[in-house]
Amino acid sequence: MSDPRPIGLFDSGVGGLTVLDAVARRFPHEDLLYLGDTARLPYGTKSPETVKRYSTRAVAFLLARGVKAVVVACNTASSLALDEMIALSPVPVIGVVEPGARAAVRAAAGTTAPIAVLATEATVASDAYGRAIRALEPGRDVLHVACPLFVPLAEEGWTDNEVADAAAKRYLGPVAASGARVVVLGCTHYPLLAATIARALPAGTILVDSAAEAAATLVSTLPEGSWAPAGEEHGETHLLVTDASARLGRVAGRFLGREAAVLELVDLP
Ligand code: DGL
Fewest 10 Å CB contacts: which of 108, 110, 242, 258? Predict the structure, then answer.
């Protein structure tokens, strides 16, 4: 029997729509319920306690709406609060860090240079990617670089101009110097700057985006037969946000690559 409940996705804002897009491509017939905590964004500059509090409340909200799984699209929430979110959930909760680490280790196979991880300050401080990579490959060095300005640049749509180039050059100098040739885009917003990031790094550097890998992880996590039957009909996407400014529709469209679907304003405790 297929399970008609939607798949839940959670992010601190609308950056996680890059992950929603990957899930929608992989599971076109599933209904998706996305919650972006836009009123409290950014998470990436906040303390672990605050990120845990916000993240568990957001997941509790999605559970109350009857989702059959939760994909935590936010790297910061996945890094700092995954255990707490799993502990309160009767359905599977999948973060993006472990899938991203797995994809990076696969891409770096046969090489010895460090793997670089670009992320928010909170994700970098947590060393979550470092732990996940070393769990898969104990000897591998991991170089973390916080790139906080990439978040507002992506939201503004300044992903491919001289300001973005200058920021990328400044942030990524140490990555190029380290010899790293596999670089994890460890933040929802960074895939939008992929071209600029690639330009600031040596030719041939592999950029790892955890979105597709996280979507693939869903397949092995949900019980056999719980998927919506493949038919003509596409699933519905519902976007919930905790703050809906006029700017949000524009920004959301940028991440989703098309007009944003219906936005519903909700309040989290
Ligand atoms: N969603 C966050 C992440 O992936 C980036 C935005 C924020 O700082 O809240 O880490």
Answer: 110
